[in-house]
Specification:
Strand content: 15-25%
Number of helices: 12
Order of helices and strands: EEEEEHHEHEHEHHHHHEHEHH
Low-confidence stretches: 6-16
Largest sheet: 10 strands, mixed
Helix content: 25-40%
Number of strands: 10
Structural class: alpha/beta
Mean pLDDT: 92
Distance between the termini: 39 Å
Radius of gyration: 18 Å
Length: 299
């Protein structure tokens, strides 16, 4: 069952032309923003202090809503949908299943930023008949030449361990090529969301030093192939986008996905960090819309 979220005076809660809705699921209430008409397109946001779906995608949503029926999912654990005791990646993966099942979406396209790209990729691998096209923004693959964790991830861990305003600013500055994008408005918005107690607790399940150490130990003890070693199973037509100057997920991370995903394209944006949809908005919109709207020749 879906519900509009409304202000006390009864007007629909909107950001631009998007309506904020909620979906009751067996795992709590999911909230998502809906806009446009056409084929279904699901947006999956990234991780990090104070992130939300609309924080990631509100700037580009109008361009895509002109052609697609857009759903911007708010993952559990980031302060908009109901919180979860699960690791954010696990909760996010379940949330995608709950969203598409709950809305009766048989087959969708997906745009996923960073963590959202990883979750979207996993969904596409597990449900090959339900994803036609997949677009990711950075964050996919594995560092080949760059150190791991990268600079931006190290700053993210530092903030999660000791959430100060100064550490938040340092992390935000690592996210972008153009430092003028780190405005007081952005800092204040992110600070308020990131320091909400349940949101901070969720972040520590993913990015605290203890959580990172536990994840590394579990991976070392497991016989399961890592995520990057399963990319050859991806059937969806895939467009990987990346900022050339990404300090969170350095560009060499794309090499394994580019070699192993069967049907994959790559577009690299210059003068661009981790937020290609923000720093290279016009170029991102035109590149991704061309990919999503391309008519594929029958094989």
């Amino acid at each position: 069952m879906t519900t509009d979220l409304r202000h006390e005076e009864g007007s629909a809660a909107r950001t631009g032309n998007a309506v904020l809705r909620e979906l009751q699921t067996g795992n709590g209430v999911l909230r998502y923003h809906e806009a446009g008409e056409g084929p279904p397109l699901v947006f999956l946001h990234g991780s990090g202090p104070g992130v939300t779906g609309m924080g990631n995608f509100k700037g580009i949503l109008p361009a895509f809503a002109a052609h697609f029926h857009c759903y911007v999912l708010e993952f559990p654990g980031f302060g908009v949908s109901d919180p979860s005791d699960l690791h954010p990646m696990q909760a996010g993966g379940q949330a995608v299943v709950d969203l598409v099942d709950g809305l009766g979406l048989d087959r969708v396209d997906i745009i996923g930023n960073s963590m959202g790209g990883m979750i979207g990729t996993r969904f596409a691998i597990n449900h090959p008949d339900r994803v036609a096209k997949l677009v990711t923004l950075g964050g996919m693959g594995v560092n080949i030449f760059s150190p791991s964790p990268a600079e931006g991830i190290s700053l993210l861990i530092a903030f999660t361990e000791d959430p100060t305003r100064e550490r938040l600013i340092q992390w935000l500055q690592s996210m972008v090529y153009d430092q003028e994008l780190v405005t007081e408005e952005l800092i204040n918005e992110r600070w308020q969301q990131a320091t909400e107690p349940k949101t901070l607790a969720s972040a520590r399940r993913m990015y605290s030093r203890a959580a990172m150490k536990a994840a590394a130990a579990a991976a070392a003890a497991s016989d399961a192939a890592p995520a990057w070693a399963q990319l050859h199973k991806l059937k969806a037509k895939t467009l990987i986008t990346w900022g050339r100057d990404d300090r969170v997920s350095p560009l060499d991370g794309v090499l394994v996905p580019l070699r192993t995903i069967p049907d994959v394209e790559l577009h690299v944006f210059p003068n661009c960090g981790h937020w290609a949809m923000i720093e290279q908005k016009a170029a991102f919109e035109s590149t991704v819309l061309a990919f999503l709207q391309r008519e594929e020749a029958a094989v």
